[in-house]
Amino acid sequence: MKTQGIPRLVVLGFICVLVWTLSGCAPDPPGRSGRGARGAGSGSDVTDAALATYVPPGDLDEYYLFYSGGHSGQIFVSGIPSMRHIATIPVFTPYPGTGYGFDDETREMLGGYTWGDSHHPGFSETNGEYDGRWLFINDNANGRMARIDLRDFKTKQILKIPHISANHGSSFVTPNSEYVTMSTRMSVPFPEGTYADVTEYGTKYKGIVAGIAIDPDDGNMTLAWEILAPPFNYDLGDAGKGPSDGFMFWTCYNSEREFIEGGKLEVTASQKDKDYILAIDWRAAEKAVADGKAKMIGGAPVLDPLDAPGIAYFMPLAKSPHGVDVSSDGQWIIGSGKLSPTTTVYNIDKIKKAIADEDFEETIDGIPVLTYTSVREAEVPVGLGPLHTQFDGRGYAYTSLFVESAVAKWKLPPYDDPSNMEQYVVDKIPVAYNIGHLVSAEGDSMSPDGNYLVALNKLSKGRHISVGPSIPESAQLIDISGDKMKLLYDAFTEPEPHYSVTIKADKINAIEVYPKEESDNPNAIWTAEEARVERRGNTVEVWMLAVRSFFAPDVLRVNKGDTVIVHVTNIEQTRDELHGFAINDYNINVVIDPGETKTVTFKADKSGVFAFYCTNFCSALHQEMQGYFLVKD
Ligand code: K7E
Ligand code: CUA
User: Fold this and answer.
1) Whose CA is nearest to atom 1 of ligand 2?
2) Could you report the per-residue pLDDT of 83-94, keeping only the tens digit for each?
3) Which tens digits make up the pLDDT trace of 543-601?
4) Per residue in 479-500, is it b (16+ CB within 10 Å) or e — as a string?
5) Terminus-to-terminus CA distance in the chain, angstroms?
6) CB 31 within 8 A of CB 488
7) Measured from the CA of 322, which atom of ligand 1 is nearest?
8) 630: CA distance to ligand 2 center in Å?
């Protein structure tokens, strides 16, 4: 394997010479700036790509890339264009690296679950632009929504919503962060907890779509409305904007509304030629709730379209669709049916007109179906297995093609010559391999940057050194600044990103310490003199201080069976000076950031002497940062 090192050295040396000779005279790749920006144009694809993605030591990336972590339950953070992994944000899964899920607050937030399935991160928005305040992410497994504060990159709230089984079509945020939305992927009997056999699927089972209101000051999420929908599988969604602001769109499959035991859903759900996009008029839903049309069921205000006409519509779409994406200007709604080689473009003006004219094909469970030919603008022959679409802000859309393992670039309407739609598919690039989602720079905002695209591929076979059978997921960085798409870089993550979102780095203002003067934790202590142990009956409460390189107190004496509450404050005000508090054999590892106070409550159920120590390397005398937990029988 030694030979591999030589060409790499040669290439690197070549790059160094190129960088040195070209810097200052060649044009910057789109969007790059600062010391890391190096011109392209050497004539070789490999060196161009290397120059475009190379972020020299000490230089910073231009974008954040937040990958959903799939069934890892986490979010992975990388930089663009380097694609280097920078951080992992634990969301639905405990993570000892940051002590997440070990202290009382985060353990309670996890609600007894030790995993989730995070699929679609969504930024908070102001006027359709990312405002860098919060990131939302859904749990496809347990009907939950989480909010991450981008001030400290930490999960602050996890909301469990009743009646939603498998929250996949989520977390899509409306243009002024009025709502983040959820939907049912796998319908179950309604209300939640009801027993009904699968033979009663068509009548007793229900889908739900929901709007979670976001408090504009602190981001706090509360359930605002749920809407009953037929027992289809609601898959992907997107929020309207500009002319389509006020609408939420979700694709759905299995409009056959049946689950036949042993019948293979892949077969039974692909019988009909068309499935649907569900369009919700969320302002009408808001009004219906205000008018008292919702019933409180299991703690949720539930609207039935039979009682509240005008809140929901279906639009027919090629069968078994997956993605629906609203163009940056809000004019076009793009639905992709994975079993069809075309993607369908709807025009919001035509949708509004069909609603006004009551131009309906039929009505399903109180939801009118808009006449397909009245709302459709075009069908674009993008290729095989279209899933998801992103935008560049210059009139082009980029659709992932799962079956073809490619990204298709195509022109958005208007079309001069609709009789020949092939001509509007202007470029294709193969990806390795089998792409799911894709994301362009600020691609869900109203002004995408049009320079980078990341293909999130399902298979990475053979494009990295082997790590055994559980192989990483692959992501490829693609330059979309020119007419032709260009592959720049292969990156890998742990399983399993579905979607990801990107944001300009300068839109995020993250803190690096919690300022002492902002601490409002009543259990914070700031001097060793305040450190103390108090006993009340069988409860022992400890106010502990952590600072380089000791704990105060450093000996804790309790009796077996006592309830122990430890509040640890890290009084450091220096960046990167974290401390950990781990008790051996007690499965406790709390990590406390500078200026932070965390509480852990547990039962002293094992007698003996247990060392506790700092788990996060903090100084030359980190090893000495330890103490003893003595449990008397
Ligand atoms: Cu296409 Cu969950 Cu959005 Cu996977 S989903 S790819
Ligand atoms: Cu404190 Cu290591």
Assistant:
1) 579
2) 999 999 999 999
3) 999 999 999 999 999 999 999 999 999 999 999 999 999 999 999 999 999 999 999 99
4) bbbeeebbbbbbbbbbebbbbb
5) 59
6) no
7) 1
8) 21
